[in-house]
Amino acid sequence: MAVEAQPVPHARSGWRPRYRGKNLTTAALIAPPLLWLVVFFAIPVVLVGLLSVGGIVLFPGDAVWTLSAWKSFLDFDSVYLGLFWKSIKMSLIVSAICVVIAYPIAYFLALGTSKHKYTLLLLIIVPFFTSFLLRVAAWKFILGDQGLINSFFYSTGLRADEHPIPQLLYSQFTVMLVLGYVWIPFVALPIFVSLENLDRRLLEAASDLGASRWQAFRRVTLPLSLPGVVAAFVFIFIPTIGEYVTPSLVGGNRGFMFGNAIQDLFGPGFDWTTGAVLSMFLFGAVLFFTLIFARFLSMRQLST
Amino acid sequence: MRSDLDRILERKLGRGQFLKLAAAAGGTGILAGCGASSGESDDTDTGAAGATETRPSIDQEKGDLKVLEWAGYELPTYVGVKAYANTYPKPKYTFLTSDDQALSKVRAGFRPEVVHPCVGYVQDWVNLDVVEPFDTSLMKNVKDLNPAMLEGGQIDGKQYFIPADWGFSSPLYRSDKVDTNEDTWALFYDEKYKGKISWWDSLENLIVAGYVNGVDDPWDMDDGELEDMKKFLISKKHVVRNFWASQTDLDADMKAGNIWIAYAWAGSYVAAKDAGHDVTYMEPKEGRLSWVCGFVLMKDSPNYHHAHAYVDEWSSTFSAEWIMLNYAYGHANTKADLSKLDPGFVEVLHLKDPSALQEPKAHMDRFVPRRKEYNAAWDEVKAA
Q1: Quick check: bond before B360 cis, omega within 30?
Q2: β B261-265/B131-132 pair status
Q3: Percent over 90 (pLDDT), chain B
Q4: Is the ipTM, as predicted for this complex, more than 0.85?
């Protein structure tokens, strides 16, 4: 018995330090990102939260704890709440369009070609080698009154000189076009990854069982790639809700969005309290959407 | 002069990429006409003489002056900086792109010693309790500065702000495309040019609307007036193609023919001329707007005397001439030599008319006490 009992404490003593070491390694690995998150994310969010209720103020002497900025923001006819819905609507449309356009691209890359797949993928990302502002400037050259498209219409006589298509530049259409252009490559990537990981034998099985190509796509490929589609949708929907650069550059007189309002309030308006209210609301909304999407994603992954 | 201006146009200045690269290749004539005399600035309450007495002398200071400046003013070719750096260590520069951004930086804890804001924001710097008045007795060139501008930089009789560069804001339009019988800001609301008009993305639109509609004091409207101007702008918004945020964008749109009529600084007039367009820089019957930027002194600067010396070099006659020649801005120094400037610019910008910078021909930028309400109204216009 005694002899048999011997190894147990040994095993334990041998196991314990390993466990401790593992703990230390885990802590060491987690600490830097955790610290990063706390310093650059959690603390700023708390500070903005305090700003929104008057706990911190721009000018000394103004400090009064109050919910008045929240109240006026949540007023039914608040201009900023209206802007929020406008931004949500735009983001939804842009995200949906991007996903619809990006899916065939990702599909072609993942399943249609095998030889130059990664070269083509690189080509999709090539526009990102230049600055965002340059790419927007290029769009202005294409869409301007004397730009590529309007000039084509003038030269073919489809439109009279000096009568350009006004919606081409500085409209909501332009905002969506540029946002789509900017985001489609990003959207294509998660879809590409999910299609790339698709077990090809399932398609063969579908075919063996008599499914047409369309049926195989609808019953096998599409459902299995849905997590990628949802991820892609989230990828674009979340950041575009707060987008303000593109609308201000090409949105024209209808280009004012929720993000622009936040920028105005923290900038020339000097109304940091209301700006913080808008920021916190946006943060809450994004958190809400992320949780919903995350839940949907994990459900999908479970079911696959 | 042309080559100088070309250089300006090619260079990316600060102020929102080139903002306010503007106005008035000169203005010295105007400023001289404002009645500056060496004796007048003696009336200015220095307000900080006491502070000076308690400071270490300039020799005891380290001299590592920290300046929060618009990009383009730090260049070693700028004679003001050169003259200062000949005597003292070169300042350490950080850059601002707008007044509100500069204020935010300082609010967040950044501590420069000299900052270059515009006059409309001086009250904010004082409210933030981070600046102290200059001791003008330490600066030999202040006596040559425009007294009206100096006065605009005083709060409670103390000289918190030393004026430096200035310029106009006015409607700019394509003379070959726009046919106007009357010089008025109301051109911004003309249905005939729907889709070819660009407003500056600024709450100043409410002030312009105030002047057009004959409001008593467009810089300090009450709730009713502000509501009226807001509704007025919303009713006119459909004629506007865009609200420009940076001057490079506006210049590109004027060049490409997307825009024919715009709120503009004189730099855009120069740019449109350079692009070969036939343009007019209007002198509206309601008066042009004008702006002036300059310096504030941060509290407890360890380089108190260096800060004064730096601003003093900025205020010199040769600094003024260099700024006017190279950046096509006006300068607050009234003793600069106008004959060094391109006569064409002096003519087009009425620089020899002493009243061109005074009410009612021009309305100098100033603090907007109800800025929060103005901003909310302007946001509503944009969101409508």
Answers
A1: yes
A2: unpaired
A3: 58
A4: no
